[in-house]
């Protein structure tokens, strides 16, 4: 007699688990956009300030898990010290931006700061970068993160992640949407996000896609990036570019 209710309970449990699984997969339909970049590459700054900022337009961010990975073409010497393509200031700012992303995980908040720093870099006002904390409404905790050495820990993590990219990045900005590298077509990231999205809450940004030219077909576009420096980066496994 007792077997009936317990079978029924088991059945109910099964149904609940199934519903839970369905619900949790449908809520993780966010598209991941990862930007591998370095803070003082002018093409990264241009991409962040003039293009990536569109991820906050017309609801697109509601389906995007935005990941910023400030390491780029830097590398680690055998004795453990970092070498950055645009010098020690770049290593410093990479770590500051890594700290900011970690301390303020909300993309809207940390992107405001990073946009500000990259805009100053484009306008040759790098010495004013510290004002970006106030201008983006953030505290200066990322500076403590840097001086405590935690920024370096984060950078080593980003270095490892960047070196594991398959295929390896050939240049920065290097944009990856759900594991698909966009290569030279990175400025069209909105189209790739909308195509990759499998959910039902279609944001406005995906309903009327602007007619974008496919930049992988634009020959002149190819030079507007910072290439992996083959001669000075012995750890790079990226293929040579001809
Ligand atoms: C999807 O991304 C948005 C914005 O980044 C975030 O608020 C939401 O929690 C994310 N959903 C999931 C399931 O990760
Ligand atoms: C690491 O090695 C480089 C050159 O090989 C040198 O310039 C640098 O000072 C060294 N750094 C440390 C912390 O020893
Ligand atoms: C751009 O063109 C390339 C090659 O023709 C193609 O693989 C890619 O999907 C196109 N991108 C978009 C956004 O249509």
Key features of this structure:
Glutaredoxin, binds 2-acetamido-2-deoxy-beta-D-glucopyranose, Gamma interferon responsive lysosomal thiol reductase family protein, 43% helix, alpha+beta, signal, oxidoreductase activity, acting on a sulfur group of donors, disulfide as acceptor, globular, 242 residues, 9 helices, Interferon-induced_GILT, single chain, disordered C terminus
At the fourth level of CATH, the homologous superfamily is: Glutaredoxin
Q: Hey, roughly how much beta strand do the residues contain? A: 5-15%
Number of helices: 9
Ligands bound to this protein structure: 2-acetamido-2-deoxy-beta-D-glucopyranose
Describe the structure.
With 242 residues, this protein is of the alpha+beta class. The protein has a single domain, classed as Glutaredoxin (3-Layer(aba) Sandwich). 43% of the residues lie in helices and 12% in strands. The protein is built from nine helices and eight strands. The protein has a four-stranded mixed beta sheet. The protein has a two-stranded antiparallel sheet with strand order 3-4. Helix 2 packs across helix 4 (107-122), helix 3 crosses helix 6 and helix 3 (88-103) packs across helix 7 (150-163). Bound molecules: 2-acetamido-2-deoxy-beta-D-glucopyranose (3 copies). One 2-acetamido-2-deoxy-beta-D-glucopyranose binds next to loops. Belongs to the GILT family.
